[in-house]
Design goal:
Rossmann fold; 7-stranded mixed beta sheet; 10 helices; disordered N terminus; binds geranyl diphosphate; binds magnesium ion
């Protein structure tokens, strides 16, 4: 029998009893995904993040202020578009963070697929909680840890070059966890099994994700193009609920954010200095009903 620690699991550092250097990738596919994120330097991510050092790897939600497009000065116009897109991405991050709570500063949260780290900083700023972010990209983990050091929150927010399917973190140590647009890189059963293991009973799991619409049929041309663009594999909506049900995650709130996701893409399309070429595909995918932007919050029971 394993020795049971006396301390509250929420205050124990996750690394305490785990191997120091777990192998981060499990497959050739995961190595290719890591390669993508180790070389990714899209201005749409770096220039937005630079504004307030909150680096996000997700899209925006809500109504866009399109008056930024009317700015006559070209340089200022670019700047105002960048700022507006960042505001929409920040609103998305804030919405996700709202569903994690309430949380207190002794609580610990798990950010699965943390990218350059913005989401964990948002959670820490909001709740004062500890956060552990995990990314398969060594470069992203290093970048995110540097950001935490610059903010002076490295004692509470740490990023790890690990695999979110097998973190090695302590069982039951987390009050909340999430995937912000990162579920499409993994098998949901393996992912939710790890979240269920890490979350304490009554803990909260949240995801915001792009999924394909079962009612449309199968994956559309646009969904396939998005998969090819990011090297991912977008799941159908149904699979989320099946896999959650199999892993003690019970949905408490489901929100279709598809209509709220469109203005971001319509504005991003106009940003010549930021576009990556996937903008029209997202708009078509949302408009033809084949693809949905969904928030799911679930309780770990
Ligand atoms: C955006 O990251 C998200 C993904 C790559 C996962 C795919 C998401 C779906 C909803 C299908 P990003 O911010 O790095 O992308 P971009 O560089 O296009 O802004
Ligand atoms: Mg982005």
């Amino acid at each position: 029998m394993h020795h049971q620690h006396e301390e509250s699991p929420l205050t124990i550092t996750p690394d305490a009893s785990t191997p120091t250097a777990p192998v981060p990738t499990h497959s050739t596919y995961q190595t290719r995904v890591a390669d993508y994120w180790n070389t990714e330097e899209n201005p749409v991510n770096l220039e937005l993040g630079r504004i307030d050092d909150l680096y996000h790897h997700h899209y925006g939600i809500g109504a866009a202020d399109r008056s930024v497009l009317d700015e006559p000065d070209a340089g200022l116009r670019r700047e105002r578009i960048t700022t507006e897109l960042h505001r929409l991405e920040q609103d998305q991050a804030d919405l996700l963070a709202t569903h994690l709570g309430p949380l207190s500063p002794v609580d610990r949260v798990f950010d699965a697929g943390c990218g350059r780290g913005g989401g964990s900083v948002v959670a820490n700023l909001r709740y004062g909680c500890h956060a552990d972010g995990v990314t398969i990209s060594a470069k992203q983990a290093e970048f995110a840890n540097e950001q935490a050091r610059k903010r002076g929150i490295e004692d509470k927010v740490a990023y790890h070059h690990r695999n979110m399917l097998a973190t090695g973190f302590r069982t039951g140590a987390y009050a909340a966890s999430w995937n912000n647009e990162s579920t499409m890189y993994v098998e949901l059963d393996l992912l939710f099994a790890e979240h269920a293991r890490l979350l304490r009973r009554g803990g909260r799991y949240v995801t915001i994700t792009g999924c394909y619409n079962d009612a449309y049929g199968r994956a559309s041309r646009e969904v396939s193009l998005i998969n090819a663009h990011y090297i991912c594999d977008i799941h159908p909506r149904s699979e989320y609920f099946r896999a959650m049900a199999r892993n003690r995650l019970v949905p408490v709130h489901v929100e279709d954010l598809t209509a709220d996701a469109l203005p971001y893409w319509q504005l991003r399309k106009e940003a010549d200095h930021l576009v990556t070429g996937i903008e029209d595909t997202f708009m078509t995918a949302y408009e033809n009903g084949s693809f949905q932007y969904l928030l799911i919050a679930a309780d770990r029971v």
